[in-house]
Design a protein that fits this description.
single chain, 604 residues, alpha+beta, GIY-YIG endonuclease, Nucleotidyltransferase, domain 5, 5 domains, 8-stranded mixed sheet
């Protein structure tokens, strides 16, 4: 339940009572009259009322938002689509504190067709609302320049900045430049080219920039056939060269299936505080545009809400009117004459998977860049996620994990590995030889090791971990908790067990395990500590087992005493290596006489 500030409670309740059951947007204002949140609704009364409904459960962030609300204003519109667009405009204009924030693409380049006589075509990072057409943004500058180079090879487009209005051409007496002399421009500045002829090129270029290569090729083929029929073979050959250029360019683009016409592909990956969305534009079976954005969460928004917000923004920004959208989840919006599809097989499924790979790569790239700038930022984010997932009071900056190793009770040992700030702290790793337990009793061994470890830390006044991970299920965890209780640490340290079979997370006293998502960063850190403890423990066990094995075999040989055993053990580590070394190596270590005794003893 979210309770508003008592000072404004009656005022807000009166506003909610008067709201209509119609679509629109609502604006929340704080006590200073500043917009702090803008939302959309199919039915304003129901949506706004849900924030103040005593039976409605809200997260901490929404509860905090409601306490800041001092006033509400609404704008009623005709449809949910209108509400979506208006919400988007208000968020961009006012940037309210509690609305999600999508990082725009002001740094990405666009291709501009200038609104002027004999339009120029060039790249720019500044989108100016002067009637010019902009295509992009291009996430890859290389992709954009490839397209510009193709356009300049296909068409004689001017590159100068002259004012080529009809009056200027007549009155100013322009002179042609080098571009004209080398055949890259037809000389519109001296009236050698008509406006209609030039505009014909521009229309074809628009098709190219929209990805409609097939349409351009069809037009060129018609022209080629016309010139060939008129016996103008040189002109026909020039057009054939252009068609070949287009075929070469198209062969380098990502072609999925030419039967797929015009569609948009969206995918999303989400963390606790942010989300990442990828967009692919497909025309005539080819991917003609790729674009990714980062979105900051403010109120624990769901993936469905964020995807809806991203779709509206990206389609508006990139002027997309596709009527089919491929998505991994159905967003909570309805767009007129547009259908959402979650593909299950075939080329459309491959397209969605490609988009999902792109968004994962984009997220990793963003996180890597951040880690270079601020190495601690990513660790803090992961620890914050772990704190939330494991219901901890504080982030687990210091984690310790325990694992037992034995073979039928023989050479029982345990290992403790330490992670600090999500990274292994190997200087703090510890091995334990089990002292008080006889036989293969993992539970009693775990109880002994936990008691020894933390009684010592307490005695030496060393820092204690925030999280203890026990490799095992409920039984191992219960055994560890016996020592935690004896030492008076219950409630002061979070203790969990992880069972290997299903990667179940157990809490003391709770029979129902926690299942973390397989891709969860919390689970990955826990698994890493568990695997490291297992590796460290097995290494120690094997060393101890080998020492015991070589000592037992050498101890049975008459004439090989303890000092000789120690020498051989230090040099050869195991019986296998000892045998492989041979007589000459033994002789170097223990002399001819002892080496001879060893050779005879190992034969038996």
């Amino acid at each position: 339940m979210a309770i508003p500030n008592t000072k404004y409670q009656n005022h807000l309740q009166e506003i909610v009572k008067r709201l209509p059951h119609k679509p629109g947007i609502y604006q929340y204002f704080d006590k200073n009259g500043k917009i702090i949140y803008v939302g959309k609704a199919k039915a304003l009364k129901s949506r706004v009322g849900s924030y103040f409904n005593k039976d409605q459960q809200h997260g901490a962030k929404i509860t905090f938002l409601v306490r800041q609300i001092a006033d509400i204003k609404v704008i009623v519109v005709d449809s949910e689509i209108d509400a979506l667009l208006l919400e988007n405009n208000f968020i961009k204009k006012y940037q309210p504190r509690y609305n999600i924030l999508m990082k725009d693409d002001k740094t990405y380049p666009w291709i501009c067709i200038k609104n002027e006589a004999f339009p120029r075509i060039f790249s720019t990072r500044n989108v100016i609302k002067d009637g010019s057409l902009y295509f992009g943004p291009y996430a890859s500058g290389r992709m954009m320049h490839t397209m510009l180079d193709l356009i300049r090879q296909l068409y004689t487009i001017r590159t100068c900045k002259l004012n080529l209005s009809e009056e200027s051409i007549k009155s100013k007496g322009y002179k042609v430049c080098l571009e004209y002399h080398i055949g890259k421009c037809k000389g519109a500045c001296i009236a050698k080219e008509t406006q209609s002829e030039y505009q014909g090129y521009i229309e074809e270029i628009k098709h190219l920039l929209k990805g409609n290569i097939h349409t351009v090729k069809q037009n060129l083929k018609k022209q080629m056939m016309f010139f060939a029929a008129e016996m103008e073979f040189e002109k026909a050959q020039e057009i054939k060269v252009k068609i070949d250029l287009l075929d070469n360019y198209q062969s380098k683009s990502v072609v999925v299936n030419t039967s797929i016409d015009d569609l948009d592909v969206f995918s999303i990956i989400s963390d606790e505080d942010e989300a990442f969305v990828n967009y692919l534009k497909v025309i005539n079976g080819a991917i003609v545009q790729a674009h990714s954005v980062e979105i900051k969460k403010r109120l624990d928004e769901t993936d469905e809400e964020i995807l809806a917000y991203a779709i509206i923004n990206i389609r508006k920004q990139l002027h997309s009117n596709s009527t089919e959208l491929l998505v991994p989840i159905i967003p909570n919006i309805e767009l007129s004459d547009t259908k959402f599809l979650i593909p299950q097989r075939g080329d459309k499924k491959k397209l969605l998977e490609l988009s999902q790979r792109n968004v994962k790569f984009y997220r990793l790239d963003i996180l890597k860049k951040r880690s270079l700038i601020d190495p601690d930022r990513n660790n803090k984010r992961i620890l914050s996620v772990m704190q939330k997932d494991l219901r901890m009071k504080v982030p687990p900056y210091h984690i310790e994990c325990f694992d037992n190793s034995n073979m039928q009770g023989d050479h029982a040992v345990a290992a403790c590995v330490v992670f600090k700030n999500t990274k292994p702290s190997k200087k703090d790793y510890r091995h334990f030889n089990i002292k008080t337990v006889v036989g293969p009793d993992d539970y009693a061994s775990m109880e002994e090791v936990i008691f020894r470890r933390y009684s010592r830390l307490i005695k030496e006044k060393q820092s204690l971990p925030q999280l203890i991970v026990i490799d095992g299920g409920k039984g191992q965890l219960s055994a560890a908790m016996k020592s935690i209780v004896k030492l008076g640490l219950k409630g002061k340290i979070t203790v969990i067990g992880i069972a290997k079979r299903l990667e179940e997370i157990f809490f003391p006293g709770d029979s129902i395990p926690l299942y973390l998502d397989k891709t969860s960063e919390s689970l990955k850190i826990i698994q890493q500590t568990r695997d490291e403890a297992h590796r460290f423990g097995i290494t120690h066990y094997r060393k101890k087992h080998q020492k015991s094995l070589i000592k037992s075999q050498l101890g049975d040989i008459k004439g090989i005493g303890p000092s000789t055993e120690t020498k051989l053990l230090k040099k050869f580590k195991s019986v296998k290596r000892l045998k492989e070394a041979g007589f000459e190596e033994w002789e170097k270590e223990i002399g001819v006489s002892k080496a001879s005794i060893l050779r005879e003893g190992l034969k038996n």
